Amino acid sequence: MTRVATHGNYQSALLSLMNAQGRAQQAQERIDSEKIATDMSGYGRGAEQLTSLTSTQARLEGFISTGEAVKARLSAQDLAMSRIYEGGNAAREAIANSLAAGRIDNLMVELGLNYQTVQGGLNAEHQGSYLFAGGQSDIAPATAATMADLTAAPSTAATFANDTLKQKSRIDEKTTVETGFLASEIGGPLTEVFRNIQAFQNGTAVTVGGVTYTPAGAGTLTGQPDANVTAFLKAQMGELDKANAGLTNQTAKNGLIQNHVETALDAQENQKTALQKMMQDKSGYDPARAITDLQMAQVAIEASAQIINSLKSTSLLNLLR
Predict the structure, then answer these.
(1) What is the pLDDT of residues 155-176, one digit of tens each?
(2) Cα–Cα distance between 44 and 53 in angstroms, integer?
(3) Strands (E), the chain
(4) Which of 80, 160, 232, 299 is geometrically suited to a Cys-Cys bond with 213, CB 3.0 to 4.6 A?
(5) DSSP state of 4
(6) CA geometry: angle at 116 spanning 111 and 218, to 5°?
(7) What DSSP designation does 187 have?
(8) What does the UniProt keyword field contain (predicted)?
(9) What do you get for the CA distance between the two ends of the chain, in Å?
(10) How far apart, in whole angstroms, are the C-alpha atoms of residue 132 and residue 185?
(11) At what angle do helices 287-311 and 6-33 cross, to 10 degrees?
(12) Are the C-beta atoms of residues 212 and 205 closer than 8 Å to each other?
């Protein structure tokens, strides 16, 4: 026979009250988080699968973050390449317009400004680093500030400070893409044209396409051009066309990489959405059910409290007084 005692009744009522308070707290946490539990221990057998899903989600978010950074860099490279092309194309137009006008008085001034546009594009920065410097991203790759500086260097290659390390980016589990370009590769041919024009202006013979053009002296690129100057400038226009075409190909390559990265990002975003839904199905808790659980727990708390209160008047001590 079970013994009835005031102490036992109090203990049972108190235990019921504590359990009801625990259920109320758990229901409130589920309402706040909309999840079954706040840590893996609360999921029981489903914890292992949730841990795997969480790990997958972390890797996926890492790739998305990398992809966004690569996308921004590629966009900056596209703008920089467009600026370089703008300088090269403007130089070609300056020569063509001067020859058409029969006067090249201001040609060197125009070309000097066009070169600075090219150099500005080659030294473009993104998030504090030079885009086309290779591994030496803290050093400006195009070192010649003016066309005069170009001819002061022993060669065109000597005017570039970039190394040969091109940036690579891993955009998903199996794909690593070479996203970097080097200033010497995308700007070398254009820089060579500007250097040859300045050398000719300085009075130095220049060989283009196997043909050597010898100026009458320093400062010949002014006034009305003679046949020799005209032939030299037309040859340089041809070299500018080649250089600009090469730059266009490089820009197109950058665009193809952009498209590839954006496609990968779209796929990852879709995968992220599907993964979040899967995790929600595994870990989520119906808010309406959580509210019902809270209400039921509160009723249990009130009932337990009333029982404890009523036990005060049912104690055997009251009968012995």
Answers:
(1) 999 999 999 999 998 888 888 8
(2) 15
(3) 125-126, 129-130, 168-170, 176-178, 206-208, 211-213
(4) 232
(5) P
(6) 40
(7) H
(8) Cell projection, Cilium, Flagellum
(9) 27
(10) 9
(11) 160
(12) yes
Say how far apart CA 89 and CA 245 lie, in whole Å.
Answer: 10
Q: In this structure, what token pair is assigned to residue 49?
A: 């699968």
- Encoding tokens for residue 69? 């950074």
- 130, 124 Cβ separation under 8 angstroms: yes
Residue corresponding to tokens 């949730």:
50
* DSSP β-bridge partners for residue 142: 160
90 phi and psi angles, rounded to 5 deg: -65, -35
Give Cα separations from 284 to 20, 41, 43, 52 (angstroms).
22, 15, 11, 16
Q: For residue 107, which amino acid is it?
A: L
Residues 6+ apart with CB under 8 A from 317: 6
CB atoms within 10 A of CB 317: 7
SS3 24: helix
pLDDT digits (tens, 9 = 90+) for 256-278: 999 999 998 898 888 888 776 76
